[in-house]
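Section: Multi-chain targets

For targets with more than one molecule, the full set of components is provided together so that the structure can be written out for the assembly as a whole rather than chain by chain. Components appear in the order listed by the source. The example entry contains two components.
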Amino acid sequence: MTPEEELHPDDVQHHLREVQELLARQKLVEDLVHRQDMPRHELVESLVHKQHVAELRSKLDSLHPADIAYILEALPLEERLFVWDLVKAERDGEILLEVSDAVRESLIETMAPEELKAAAETLDADELADLAPDLPPEVIQDVFQSLDHEGREQLRAAMSYPEDSVGALMDFDLMTVREDVTLEVVLRYLRRFDELPDHTDKLFVVDREDRLKGILSLESLLLNDPESLVADVMRKEVMISFEPADDADDAAQAFERYDLVSAPVIGPDKRLIGRLTVADVVDYIREESEAEILSHAGLREEEDIFASVWDSVKNRWSWLAVNLVTAFVASRVIGAFEGSIEKLVALAALMPIVAGIGGNSGNQTVTMIVRAIAIGQVEQSAMQRLLKKEISVALINGLVWGGLLGILSWWLYHSAALGVVMTAAMTLNLLLAATAGVAIPMLRQRLGADPAIGGSVMITALTDSGGFFIFLGLATLFLL
Amino acid sequence: MTPEEELHPDDVQHHLREVQELLARQKLVEDLVHRQDMPRHELVESLVHKQHVAELRSKLDSLHPADIAYILEALPLEERLFVWDLVKAERDGEILLEVSDAVRESLIETMAPEELKAAAETLDADELADLAPDLPPEVIQDVFQSLDHEGREQLRAAMSYPEDSVGALMDFDLMTVREDVTLEVVLRYLRRFDELPDHTDKLFVVDREDRLKGILSLESLLLNDPESLVADVMRKEVMISFEPADDADDAAQAFERYDLVSAPVIGPDKRLIGRLTVADVVDYIREESEAEILSHAGLREEEDIFASVWDSVKNRWSWLAVNLVTAFVASRVIGAFEGSIEKLVALAALMPIVAGIGGNSGNQTVTMIVRAIAIGQVEQSAMQRLLKKEISVALINGLVWGGLLGILSWWLYHSAALGVVMTAAMTLNLLLAATAGVAIPMLRQRLGADPAIGGSVMITALTDSGGFFIFLGLATLFLL
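Its structure, encoded as tokens over all components, is:
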């Protein structure tokens, strides 16, 4: 890189385009060679080819691992693997950490066990733990053997915590100092290192048993008189610390609320065992919100956009299957009223409106309640109050929009009675949607399930079947 | 606070419960007094009341502003305002910054202009800019007058950038040094301060014209020999910097990719004008993902869960109105085939399945494409490839699930022809959903609109009307 070069936020796009261009030029040569029936090995030997490859390799060497990961994700499989082969082996580990799960799988599949082992050995214990689920068991076994005692303990610890816990996010890059030394001693101690762990904004003050006694921020280290004792300038009170079993969501909210950069993770006896950094938290927040958005559409995981058709079908089929069942149930509800529809075919045209608006309104309620539960603002005791409010909103919407549709139906089918049934059905279905929209997430929470999952499918199933039943039922009672 | 007290991630829940308890006790006394017909002013004078209020006040004084904000959001309006009155006036500003928009409005409504002005004057220019849209114009005018020249310039700058730009997120807490001094001089300079700005992980090296020459991380300041010159240890190359007009999304991705804590914002001539910190980025990421999740359900903004029924109706009505229109259109499509339904009433029961599954499948495609566009991985040129893949997925799903439903229909209605029509309609509607699911977000992007917005409504509208039309049309052609 030239000195003074600057990175701008959208530079990764330029990098991607450059790599794509190099690949395209490479492909052009290959096509040409192909048309001339030159054997493959001659191509690989050819000067032009070598030049392109060298150019590409040096481009890749100059890039940040996260940028290489980005480029790999944006390339179709064949080109992705071509580029992956050109990446220096010692960078494989850090890049594998950065790519999405789907792309990671596609890369690991092509690597020999020795390559994987070499890549894994460049990583810290906490990073290894993240990668481990995707590695073949024999590779993990080998890597585990190659670790020292402390590394093995750390890897075992990191792998033992559930996915959404602080323990799974923490790292072990701890800078610790004793409380009975002066800041000058700490400063001299630090100068012995070539670098500090990423996101070091504070040092942890521990005693001989590694128990956390306080926190020495770099700020107080820099601003105080070097002659001061660590014990006198460290922070002993209101230390924010986590335990490995703490919920990652709560930790993320604490980072957000208190604007933290790093925080200690302590075990039994206040023993310092790890550290949580804002980088881990940012990744976690992003992944969680991606997962939530994907789950709304019934996608189980982020799809590699160049995934095979078959992988995509697998990622999506379970949701479609569930919806098929609920749609089939709704269809049978209609089936039960076929006699009524035969007599008054207008019902067939009007019934999807009742069901559809109910589903939309119910989804609004569910989304609201789920978010309020997620940020911890809804106690079960507030359920009644929320229910009352949602029912009032539904009543207003039902009378306004249902009334409007009633008038439209009256005008279309010249039947005032049909209009009244339409309005009544809309209102009742919106009330059903409001009640279920509050009750479903609240009940799921009380039962210990994640209130965010499945609420949308359940409410839509209920308002579809319920809407058809209410509308066709009322019509059968009052119109026929 | 007692020394050695620690904050745990879910402490804010305990705080909330404590405050609620104090409020409940307070209410008990009030009720008692009320039943004895004691006049209100005597209550306020009463010892018990004073004691409760003092307890609550001291509890609030001990809390972090973000925690007070959290508690205010979790309390119903009356209790919220009671608590708000007890908060020390000089903390009003920072708390107003922390609460959600809806709650901020409810608090500002009750404050006198002088109170608002006093609160605003405790804030920095970038914080003021965040609050300004919610303040009455005369308050902003007054605050603006009270600022010094630099403050006015900063406020003007911060307010001039669009909401989703780096300029709107940056702050002005810059620590700058010159390149021709030694680290020892920098260290002595820093010791003159009582504190560093939050999230200071680096100092900015500038020349006399405030042009950014390099970056001196606290790490290199600490690890290098104090006799070294700043110019020799500062980082000159691969500095990541932003411009105020840069897209906040790109900046957030850069922070995530390169694990940044802070980064300089530079104007024309590389002049340093501000700073972006990971705290701002985390808040931005959270807000964006909230907005995306809310918009899926057609909620315009986060609703204060204790908002009035009327506010909720306003927040939700526009989405229901749009859906009403699309549902009405779909209903008219059915209306056009009333003759066919009258002859074969089974069509009425089966048609919602075709429409519903199409909508679900289309939403999966839209979600996938929108996410791929958001992370910048889809060039317009990839459209054809993606389309091909989505169509293949749709074809498989259509034949499998459509086939299954065809068999079910055949079995239910003893008509093989009906089963074939069902399968064909499902497949065609899924193909329509796949095509539109790729095309809608891509076209919106090409037209410069946000591909994430409205895709779900459009696809559902299309697959509903389209599904009814295809199924009833095929049935009319081949069955009647």
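Chain B has a mean pLDDT of 87.
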